[in-house]
Amino acid sequence: MTASGKPVKKGAKSSATRRENPLMRHLDAVSLSTKLVSIILVLLLVSGCVIAFAVRQLVSAYIIDKTDTQLTNQAGLVINNIDQLQRTDNSSTLNGNMYFVQFRDADYNIESTPLVPKLQGSVASVPKLPASGSLDGIQFGRPFTTDAQVQVGDGSVSRSSLKMAMSPWRVVALQYTVKDPDSGGVIRGVALIGLSLHDMQDTLGIITKYFLVVGIATIVFATVMATIAVDRTLLPLKRIEKTAAKITNGDLSQRVPSAPENTEVGSLSASLNQMLARIEQSFREQQETTDKMKRFVSDASHELRTPLAAIHGYAELYKMQRDYPGALERADESIDRIEKSSTRMAALVEDLLSLARMDEGRGIDLNQKVKLNGIIADSAEDLHALDPERVIRLGSVTVTGSEAPLVAADGTAPEPARLEFTEGKLEPILTQGDPARLRQVITNIVGNIHRYTPSDSPVEMGVSVLTASLPHVDLGKMPSTDVSLDQFIQAVQVAASTGSGQRFAVMRVIDHGPGMAPQSRQMIFERFYTADPSRAREKGGTGLGMAIAQSAVKAHHGLICASETDGGGLTFTVIIPIVEVEPTSSDAPHSAPANENPSESVQSTKA
């Protein structure tokens, strides 16, 4: 609980503890490479100590076991050769006697100590034994270890001799019986036989020194190798760190160096690169959206300013001239101009509202039934009503060249696959979507044809269902370009060869008017874009029709693009995925009232 009575979260408490603990702060400040090298060295040091301790224990046990065996096996020999051992030169540990022998009677009283090893420098070492008259719990036949009692004679004593004399002893107590040569009776007693463990101590000291030297050399070598190995291992992470620093400075094009994805660093690099690609794409899309929004606001302000200025100007003109002769005729003209400007401004505002609703995901209902053939037929009739002299042909859309060979029989390369219009009856197509918005798409295209193409130029309108192999591809996220259209056509070719794919409705409107330049055609779906602004105002265009059409198609997860018509003109292609719906009795194929063939109902020629 805090001072205010509020509970403290466990994670927050742990973080606060780490901040308050100086040791934890210092550990957090140590680099990862240093931590790894330190961990490796600690593990090596611990492992070396464990191995050295185990070897010392093993050697110690082996030497003690060997000493015990020697004491047990040679006890009788030593006792029977006391006289000969006494005559041995005790001044040398190499050639002299190394046994300690002490005899005690049956009451454990010391009788004699016939053998006492002497070291160099008149140093004598004997085991520390129980006092005379007692064995202090010593078991017969069981060797035991005891400390040494050192006796130093006159003269200087070397350090090595003193060290040897202070080595512990291994002693065994044995019962013996001998025949008394004088009385002929049996004498019973205890013999204590001992051997110095100096050799064991010396061996263990050598092993310890050996392990110490080797351990230091190993630690130095391991430190160098671990530092190199850790630096080499962490090199990809350091590259990632440098890349992240560059990205932090604003360079979103940087990517983490790749590595095999079966490794942790490789998997991390791949994930980071995917994340960076998405971040860069999102940043660019956000930047493009921001730029478009700025341009949109600027263009909208400009477009709205024009009719408002006209309305304001003609209103001022009317006020200035209303007292002059002929004011009624001039007033009618001013009111007419004001009405036209207000009508244009109302249309512009309505288009802006439509775009705003679709940008927010509102104003569109994708759960309705749509008869695409009916939309095409109705739009054709609308265009015929606007331009009675225009020839309009209805039909279907097919892909030509999808099964053509790579090389024709005459050795020439065949034409690339493309969408073709075939005149005929409209194919009944029922899907799910927003019929009002899809009708608006075709209506906007037809309106552009009416405004910007000669009234005697022909128009073809067709709709068909094509199968394309586009797994996990959202057409709504593809740009409205010829490249996207070619990709769809290639997917139709793949589906034709594999026999599987997704069904798409393809609507095409082809005009044979003046067309557009390639650079203008690429910008046709931008908001407020018009190839000729002055002419657009004369024709009543706002520059938002194609932007609305694109937004509506993308809301249906579809694609719309404008391409050049063979021989001149503009061709609009709308592709949306088919969503299966249950047909009802009211979903009968659209038919023209005057003729069985819908394509003939909107055809006319010049009289």
Automatic annotation (TrEMBL):
Location (main, coarse): membrane
Spans through the membrane: 36-55, 210-230
Gene Ontology molecular function: phosphorelay sensor kinase activity
Enzyme class name: transferase
Lineage: Bacteria, Bacillati, Actinomycetota, Actinomycetes, Bifidobacteriales
Start and end residues of each stretch annotated as Disordered: 584-607
GO CC annotations on file: plasma membrane
Domain spans labelled Histidine kinase: 299-580
Keywords per UniProt: Kinase, Membrane, Phosphoprotein, Transferase, Transmembrane, Transmembrane helix, Two-component regulatory system
InterPro entries to which the protein is assigned, alphabetical: HAMP_dom (IPR003660), HATPase_C_sf (IPR036890), HATPase_dom (IPR003594), His_kinase_dom (IPR005467), HisK_dim/P_dom (IPR003661), HisK_dim/P_sf (IPR036097), Sig_transdc_His_kin-like_C (IPR004358), TCS_sensor_his_kinase (IPR050428)
Sequence ranges assigned to domain HAMP in this UniProt record: 231-284
Gene3D superfamilies: 1.10.287.130, 6.10.340.10, Histidine kinase-like ATPase, C-terminal domain
EC id: 2.7.13.3
Organism of provenance: Bifidobacterium tissieri
Record field: catalytic activity: ATP + protein L-histidine = ADP + protein N-phospho-L-histidine
Protein name (Swiss-Prot/TrEMBL): histidine kinase
Subcellular location, record wording: Cell membrane
Pfam families: HAMP, HATPase_c, HisKA
